[in-house]
Design a protein that fits this description.
alpha-N-acetylgalactosaminidase activity; Glyco_hydro_27/36_CS; 432 residues; Immunoglobulin-like; eight-stranded parallel sheet; 14 helices; alpha/beta; 16 strands; TIM Barrel
Length: 432
């Protein structure tokens, strides 16, 4: 009877948690890598534009850059093909096949090339009749076959889009693909665009279910190469942070879409802002830029070690906007492991650098604590700061100041305050 009771309680648990079996143990921190879409779109004209068309050559070259230019060592490991890679029809066996002219070696050979460089390969599918670009989609009857195809090719990540499918098909198909991927036995990170097609918010989107079946998900519009687009994404994510923030964590992330740093639409300040805000959001860091020609300044932003350390914090807590001032200054906070924090001071102003004064007490930090403050972009420790002390930061228009704060064990004596810095080293905390 005792054994029977154990079996029954186990059964009750299994019934209460029907989808826990879908946990695949992957993406314990937000995935990092490169993705083709924003920069290269659906450019399939390899005759006129061989250098920039969606082809195995483009992917080989991006894999080389990730492996050879310092990206891989920082965690940028995924080389992700987006839409428009396949032939216009499935083969006689109903299988997806790559375009024979643009991917003559096949996806398995591409995966082998990527893996040989210590990287991982991502691919794109679409739960519907067609992909968004008009290529063969994955209908419900194709889900298992396509999962097996991707696994056989050696794919490490799947982005499953939702063009040309109904809400009912999505409700069946997205969980079905999670099961099918797990059944292959190959670890495949699963990025699903399901919430983006349902408006991104409850009651249409159930983030509890989503977190159990997907490793990351697109909630909102596609990013475009403009500051206006970045701001619209930031606005939507932080306006809805009460719903979105609790949904994120190790193994399941909100995805505000690709990093466009290194392209054409963002200034230097705006590029730094996107990187800082995506890091505070615990967002995947999927670059969509030409790594063959990226500028040193864009590369420096994307390869900031402390920034990446914060993004990849093992606690995996998504940050929140905690202050929105009439002066168009906003403050964002992300709690990190070992009682550390990341603070981002962001200016929406378009006039001139703005001096913003506050204290950690006003930002709800614990009383009587002392923090060592490091400027994430300058890199230097800018001083030690007590919770009660007022401080000022100078924030450039559409720019950020980002701090990494570590708690210090000892109470600060007045003579321990950071020395005055020379101009140009960045503004440091000071005691009034």
């Amino acid at each position: 009877a005792a054994m029977e009771a154990v079996v029954l309680s186990g059964l009750a648990l299994a019934l209460a948690l029907p989808s826990m079996a879908l946990e695949n143990g992957l993406a314990r921190t937000p995935p990092m890598g490169w993705m083709s879409w924003e920069r290269f779109r659906c450019n399939v004209d390899c005759q006129a534009d061989p250098h920039n068309c969606i082809s195995e050559q483009l992917l080989f070259e991006m894999a080389d850059r990730l492996a050879e230019d310092g990206w891989r060592e920082l965690g940028y490991e995924y080389v992700n093909i987006d839409d428009c890679w396949s032939a216009k029809q499935r083969d006689a066996a109903g299988q997806l096949v790559p375009d024979p002219k643009r991917f003559p070696s096949g996806i398995k050979a591409l995966a082998d090339y990527v893996h040989a460089r210590g990287l991982k390969l991502g691919i794109y599918g679409d739960l519907g009749i067609f992909t968004c670009g008009g290529y063969p989609g994955t209908m419900l009857e194709n889900v298992k076959q396509d999962a097996q195809t991707f696994a056989a090719w050696g794919v490490d990540m799947l982005k499953l889009d939702g063009c040309y499918s109904s809400a009912e098909e999505q409700a069946k198909g997205y969980p079905e693909m999670a099961r099918a991927l797990n059944a292959t036995g190959r670890p495949i990170v699963y990025s699903c665009s399901w919430p983006a097609y349902q408006g991104g918010l409850p009651p249409k989107v159930n983030y509890t279910i989503l977190a159990e079946i997907c490793n990351l998900w697109r909630n909102y519009d596609d990013i475009q190469d403009s500051w206006e687009s970045v701001l619209s994404i930031v606005d939507w994510f932080f306006t809805n942070q009460d719903v979105l923030q609790p949904a994120a964590g190790p193994g399941h992330w909100n995805d505000p879409d690709m990093l466009i740093i290194g392209n054409f639409g963002l200034s230097f300040e705006q590029s730094r802002s996107q990187m800082a805000l995506w890091t505070v959001m615990a967002a995947p860091l999927l670059m969509s830029t030409d790594l063959r020609t990226i500028s040193p300044s864009a590369k420096e932003i994307l390869q900031n070690r402390l920034m990446i350390q914060i993004n990849q914090d093992p606690l995996g807590i998504q940050g929140r906007r905690i202050v929105k001032e009439k002066s168009q200054i906003e403050v964002f906070l992300r709690p990190l492991s070992r009682a550390a924090s990341a603070l981002v001071f962001f200016s929406r102003r378009t006039d001139m650098p703005f001096r913003y004064t506050t204290s950690l007490a006003k930002l709800h930090f614990p009383e009587d604590a002392v923090y060592e403050v490091q400027d994430v972009y300058v890199g230097k420790i800018v001083g030690a700061l007590r919770t009660a002390d007022n401080f000022s930061v100078i924030i450039n228009p559409s720019g950020v100041v980002m701090w990494y704060l570590r708690p210090m064990a000892l109470r600060l004596q007045p003579w321990h305050v950071a020395r005055q810095q020379t101009p140009g080293e960045g503004f440091h905390p000071y005691i009034l």
